[in-house]
Specification:
The complex is a heterodimer. By secondary structure, chain A is an alpha/beta fold. Chain A has 9 helices and 16 strands. In chain B, a hairpin with a 5-residue loop joins strand 4 and strand 5. The longest helix of chain B is centred in the middle third of the chain and has 14 residues.
Chain lengths: 371, 167
């Protein structure tokens, strides 16, 4: 195998309730939160949902527009940040999304058979470019997989840049499904807490420009990535965390760094009973008592965008040399042997950091990045 | 992209009629939608039902579709419109996500390598082929199983490996 080229994050675009710049997002991550109920209207029926979302009017106005605005604004901001001309250079955009525009099916109008894949054309039309657009839709790890694939494409294709990341607009379909599966914690997401009961829903978009050149921003260097599959269950993780551990080991091997050179982990940390235990076990098996954080306690589960929010949190940790604390984590689950940052942020030297992203259905994606 | 040393070792095309006539049945397929069953049937035909030669850790999967699980998404959306979340069958709900078909297929083939799904308007599935080639070239796996299917339509399966890879 040939030695990998260097890959850097040279631009960042954020569309989130928690800020549109790295500094704003970082400030918000370090504030506690209270869970708030929101009212949305779906086909003129009022629905009360517990979620942190950018708007509550998307079903009354235009769901597709809500999704496209979020997605394309983040892409355009990232491109501008990296000084990329989307029309003039050879590049590619990879969209990671769990549900895409599925919620448009809640409207009573019929949809064409290829409605879901047409998203690719709609994004090109919105951006007014003719660039290659890929839609990766592997639930919660879609964004992380988009970034992982971007890393590989920059090594094995002749793209000058790849814009990759994740977008998830609030999905009432998903919300209802998780509510029916009793996976929503009405009191907020509490990753690794003894009293955790499930997820809390968020939405937003984060996209990154990845290139083989360093930029003045110097957000981070992508050192490696790996994707493995549990092949175990449709919704539950394999209890031993074997494939999560394998993904971490493969990503470290690709990055050519040892486990003791990793300073922290941005966990997937959903706040669901089994997932947190399995992820903590897999991490402990490799790293022992490593410092970790879990942004979902603050921003909620952003579905297919969650891996991109994970990388954004990693970039913040590298920039500020500090890990945000896990919001809502008050009493650590005794079976969790890793060290989630509790109650206040933790300043420490961070050179290399891992982002974990574990999908519904058992796809495990790991990103390794460095300062 | 340089595709030297990568080959499509097996390829199969399945018509919707063949899938329907096959009455393909699996254990515990009660909660599986037809979209997923068609994917598994295609994989079954690709290997003539014998997966013993697949290397579990070094094989990956890519699924591509124009429609996705259209009928499952529409059905769950209709239920929500009529009965809200209480009407949802929790065992059928995951079928709205492409990741569920992928999970069923990884379990069916017992494959632990890189797996991924694309929505793609191109029926030739070029993006999935690119993905497979890149995964093999990057050393992420030795072989990829590439399945394309649409709801109520034909399906295609490919088994892609390095030229020097023997089953």
């Amino acid at each position: 195998m040939k030695k990998n080229k260097e890959v850097y994050v040279t631009g960042v675009g954020i569309v989130s309730k928690f800020g549109s710049t790295i500094n704003e997002y970082w400030d918000e991550l370090n504030k506690g939160k209270t869970s708030e109920k929101q009212n949305i209207s779906v086909n003129n029926q009022n629905k009360e949902v517990l979620a942190d979302i950018l708007s509550t009017k998307m079903y009354e106005e235009d769901y597709e527009k809500y999704f496209l605005d979020m997605c394309c604004k983040a892409i355009l901001t990232a491109a501008q940040d990296a000084d990329i001309d989307l029309s003039g250079q050879r590049g590619c955009i990879i969209i990671g999304t769990g549900m895409g525009i599925s919620d448009a099916f809640l409207s009573l109008e019929d949809k064409p058979a290829d409605f879901m894949s047409k998203l690719e054309h709609k994004i090109r039309k919105y951006l007014k470019v003719n660039i290659k657009v890929l839609i990766m839709a592997n639930s919660c790890c879609a964004g992380a997989q988009a970034i992982a694939y971007a890393y590989d494409l920059l090594n094995f294709n002749d793209f000058k840049f790849v814009i990759a990341g994740g977008v998830e607009a609030f999905s009432y379909i998903t919300y209802c499904g998780f509510k029916r599966l009793n996976s929503i914690d009405e009191t907020g997401c509490k990753p690794f807490d003894k009293n955790r009961k499930g997820i809390y829903v968020g939405d937003g978009a984060v996209f990154f420009v990845l290139e083989n050149r360093k930029s003045e921003h110097g957000y981070c260097k992508m050192l490696g990535q790996a994707v493995t599959s549990d092949a175990y269950h449709i919704v539950s993780p394999e209890p031993g965390g074997i494939q999560i551990s394998r993904a971490i080991r493969q990503a470290l091997k690709q990055a050519d760094i040892k486990y003791n050179e990793i300073d922290a982990v941005i966990t997937h940390g959903t706040g669901t009973k089994l997932n947190d235990i399995v992820e903590a076990k897999a991490l402990y098996d490799i790293f022992g008592h490593i410092d970790v954080t879990a942004p979902k306690g603050k921003i909620g589960h952003t579905g297919g965008a969650s891996g991109a929010f994970g990388l954004l949190t990693a970039i913040c940790a590298l920039k500020f040399q500090c890990l945000p604390y896990v919001v809502n984590l008050n009493e650590l689950d005794e079976s969790v042997k890793i060290s989630p940052v509790m109650l206040s942020k933790k300043f420490k030297s961070i050179k290399n950091i891992i982002v974990n992203c574990l999908a519904f259905g058992g796809t495990n994606t790991v990103l390794v990045c460095g300062a | 992209m340089n595709i030297k040393n990568i080959v499509i070792k097996k390829r199969v095309l399945i018509s919707n009629k063949e899938f329907i006539n096959s009455r393909f049945k699996l254990e515990n397929d009660r909660t599986m939608d037809d979209f997923t069953k068609n994917i598994l049937f295609t994989a079954h035909k690709l290997f003539n039902g014998d997966f013993s030669s697949l290397n579990s850790d070094s094989s990956g999967i890519v699924l591509t579709t124009r429609t996705g699980p259209y009928n499952s998404i529409k059905s769950v959306a209709d239920i929500i419109n009529n009965y809200d979340y209480k009407g949802i069958n929790p065992s059928l709900f995951p079928n709205v996500m492409l990741s569920t078909s992928l999970a069923y297929l990884t379990i069916y083939l017992n494959v632990h390598g890189p797996s991924c799904t694309f929505y793609d308007t191109d029926r030739n599935g070029r993006n999935a082929l690119d993905y497979s080639i890149v995964q093999i070239k990057a050393g992420n796996c030795d072989a990829m199983i590439d399945i394309y299917t649409d709801e109520n339509n034909w399906a295609e399966g490919k088994y892609i490996t390095r030229k020097d890879f023997y089953m």
